[in-house]
User: Which sequence fits this backbone?
């Protein structure tokens, strides 16, 4: 199984900051990587698919990048409504696996 | 508007069975692969099962293989998850989602608690 490791597990930043979340796969996943946002008490929401494709309706301050085993979700200017837990997910091979999440807080 | 509405959750004893349902609307159900994903309380996300748009093929992780069965009724736009031999570690919120590689629509989730 491919293990997905997210860092940091907790991130505190100020409104307006540029924020970078990391996701590392245990083997090459050839950009088959998605990002989800989960706000407290809600279902997850797809933000980014195939490493850098922005899902319809998602603000352009969210972007994704990466290749091989290392991937990044960037928020260009943190907004109060971005407080959430962010999960990465690989679909290079079965079983589909998720990272353990990065909880993002406002400082 | 896409809607996925899960039902069938609840409290069940270890070793017993439970069947979840997910009624879909707002899209052409029989064009989409569907997937169940779960989340234990305070934990991360875990893929549980996926099914092709026709229902001809199904996929499971080892943690549920042989115990859980995903199925669908395209005439009723409904997805199912039959869960047998339930264990305490199956306690989670179960989400119905569209897709198999990425999950673009999610239901609100249904809670399953396995406890004596």
Assistant:
């Amino acid at each position: 199984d491919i293990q997905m490791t997210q860092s940091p597990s907790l991130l505190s930043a100020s409104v307006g900051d540029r924020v970078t979340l990391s996701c590392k796969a245990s083997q090459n996943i050839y950009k088959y990587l998605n990002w989800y946002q989960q706000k407290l008490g809600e279902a997850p929401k797809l933000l980014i698919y195939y490493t850098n494709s922005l899902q319809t309706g998602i603000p352009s301050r969210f972007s994704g990048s990466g290749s091989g085993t290392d991937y990044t979700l960037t928020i260009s200017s943190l907004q109060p409504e971005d407080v959430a837990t962010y999960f990465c997910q690989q679909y290079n091979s079965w079983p589909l696996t998720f990272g353990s999440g990065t909880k993002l807080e406002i400082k | 508007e896409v809607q996925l509405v899960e039902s069938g959750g609840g409290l069940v004893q270890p070793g017993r069975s439970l069947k979840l349902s997910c009624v879909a609307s707002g899209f052409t159900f029989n064009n989409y692969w569907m997937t169940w994903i779960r989340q234990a309380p305070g934990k991360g996300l875990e893929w549980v099962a996926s099914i092709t748009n026709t229902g001809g093929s199904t996929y499971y992780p080892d943690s549920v293989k042989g115990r859980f069965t995903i199925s669908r009724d395209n005439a009723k736009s409904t997805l199912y998850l039959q869960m047998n031999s339930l264990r305490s570690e199956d306690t989670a919120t179960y989400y119905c989602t569209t897709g198999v590689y990425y999950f673009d629509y999610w239901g609100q989730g249904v809670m399953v608690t396995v406890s004596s």
In short: Chain B has a mean pLDDT of 97. The interface with chain A takes residues 44-47, 50, 59, 61-62, 95, 100-104, 106-109 of chain B (CB under 8 Å). The beta strands of chain B are 3-7, 10-12, 18-25, 34-39, 45-51, 58-59, 68-73, 78-83, 92-98, 110-114. The CA atoms of residues 70 and 81 of chain B lie 5 Å apart.
